[in-house]
Amino acid sequence: MTPSSASRPSLWLNARLASMDPAHPAPYGVLENHALLLRGGNIEAVLPQAGVDPAAFDGDVHDLQGRWITPGFIDCHTHLVYGGSRAAEWEKRLNGVPYQQIAAEGGGIVSTVRATRWLDEEELALESLPRLKALMAEGVTTVEIKSGYGLTQADEIKQLSAARRLQDSLPVEVAATLLAAHAVPPEYAGDADGYIAYVVDSILPLAARAGLAEAVDVFCESVGFTPAQTRRVFEAARAHGLKVKGHVEQLSNLHGAELVAEFGGLSADHIEYLDAAGVAALKAAGTVAVLLPGAFYFLRETQKPPVALLRAAGVPMAVSTDLNPGTSPFASIRLAMNQACVLFGLSPEEALAGVTRHAARALGRGATHGRLAAGCVADLLVWDIDHPAELAYSVGVPQLKQRVFRGSAQNLE
Ligand code: DI6
Ligand code: FE
């Protein structure tokens, strides 16, 4: 929804802020006994409580009575706009049907492509709406949505338009990414290079011209596209002024992260097989490492991302749901935070930074999103918790009391 500069100014008193702002050195950037002044959809000031006089304020006043506030959550990697379900295929796999047979029977990504092509833009938005609403109900205020289940010019544009339609109808900010290079569609079977030429010459230029995507992603993998093909897409993205990011090093190490870094990419995502050279490349380029523990869990993978190396190098680690029908059918950012801690060894503070400050950077929004700081957007969450570690600790416990988007509050009780 367009930022509501019409929201009344508001003052949020007696709060405990998990600001996630590195300007404040305490864990979680904690500021006890503080107040927030919101105006025009932005945070105008972060103030010590003692210096605030609510009587002199002309706007809405909220007394938080010591409740915690965090920045709004940012889910920086999702494929939530799609048609159909792959539950039946998953059931078959669990009953012992081999993957090759499922693929031969039209399963896998191709089945989601078929179901997505079948729907028109409005139906696609409608079918995707509950997934986005579930993320929002947990506190997501900015979400990235990828295409990648259309794989024709018209169907990729349709997916991106459905994402735009969702943003226009709900109090949430959507960052749309073109992932036309997600899989080779049936029409190009055996001709991945031919499909990449179509992506570069036809799909990408139209998505850029229409202003429907701000970034371009590629599935760079043995079962996806080669580094050479990925490079062609990134070069086209650069020529059209779009940022790049990559699904890289998920199942093997093709050095895709180094390629993303070479193009000054926003983020390298999955990265279970990332090595020391890849970590160094991300660090040098200022590229964010996006951890997607939902897919690792659902695929029962064993190779973990090199968290200790990333941490030692000071590469920012974001955490995201990867919400998609094939490998991470989970519309829960709290689950992703918990999985990042349990499966990958992040601390609860790192998990929270992963869905706020670092996720903002992964979307090129580090200056304005993901922190409670003057000048940032007024996207924030009011919690009934005793400590911010609770946010990564449990899943499904209704602790979110208010969700504030661009200064406008939604009560959730
Ligand atoms: N990596 C994945 O794990 C998903 N896409 C990707 O690039 C798979 C998506 C699907 O199976 O539908
Ligand atoms: Fe993904």
TrEMBL record:
* Binding residue positions for Zn(2+): H77, H79, H247, D322
Q: Which pathway does this polypeptide act in?
A: Amino-acid degradation; L-histidine degradation into L-glutamate; N-formimidoyl-L-glutamate from L-histidine: step 3/3
Provide the residue positions that the database annotates as binding Fe(3+): H77, H79, H247, D322
Q: Where does N-formimidoyl-L-glutamate bind?
A: Y149, N324, G326
Q: Where is the Amidohydrolase-related domain?
A: 68-388
State if Iron is listed as a keyword. Answer: yes
Which reactions are catalysed by this chain?
4-imidazolone-5-propanoate + H2O = N-formimidoyl-L-glutamate
- What keywords are assigned to this protein? Cytoplasm, Histidine metabolism, Hydrolase, Iron, Metal-binding, Zinc
The cross-references to SUPFAM superfamilies, in alphabetical order and at most eight, read: Composite domain of metallo-dependent hydrolases (SSF51338), Metallo-dependent hydrolases (SSF51556)
Q: Which cofactors?
A: Zn(2+); Fe(3+)
From what superkingdom does this record's organism come? Bacteria
Similarity field: Belongs to the metallo-dependent hydrolases superfamily. HutI family.
Q: Which NCBIfam families match?
A: hutI
Role played = Catalyzes the hydrolytic cleavage of the carbon-nitrogen bond in imidazolone-5-propanoate to yield N-formimidoyl-L-glutamate. It is the third step in the universal histidine degradation pathway.
Name the record gives this protein: Imidazolonepropionase
- Annotated source species: Chromobacterium sphagni
